[in-house]
């Protein structure tokens, strides 16, 4: 890649890589926050007792 547009092409690839890496980090962080929130809600949920079943 030594043509007149090499700098533009390399910069485009670098920006695309940075955007994709950012999206992956954001998705993983959101997954962890959502999982933690769901675990808190599940802990607050009243449990049914097995004794009441026939």
Automatic annotation (TrEMBL):
This is Heme exporter protein D. It is found in: Cell inner membrane. The chain crosses the membrane at residues 6-29. GO terms for biological process: cytochrome complex assembly; heme transport. Required for the export of heme to the periplasm for the biogenesis of c-type cytochromes. NCBIfam families: cytochro_ccmD. It is a single-pass membrane protein. Pfam families: CcmD (PF04995). InterPro entries: Haem_export_protD_CcmD. One of its GO terms (cellular component) is plasma membrane. Belongs to the CcmD/CycX/HelD family. Keywords: Cell inner membrane, Cell membrane, Cytochrome c-type biogenesis, Membrane, Transmembrane, Transmembrane helix, Transport. It comes from the Bacteria.
């Amino acid at each position: 890649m030594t043509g007149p547009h090499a700098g533009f092409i390399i910069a485009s690839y670098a920006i695309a890589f940075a955007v994709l890496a950012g999206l992956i980090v954001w998705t993983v962080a959101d997954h962890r926050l959502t999982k933690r929130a769901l675990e808190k809600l599940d802990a607050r949920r009243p449990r049914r007792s097995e004794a009441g079943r026939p």
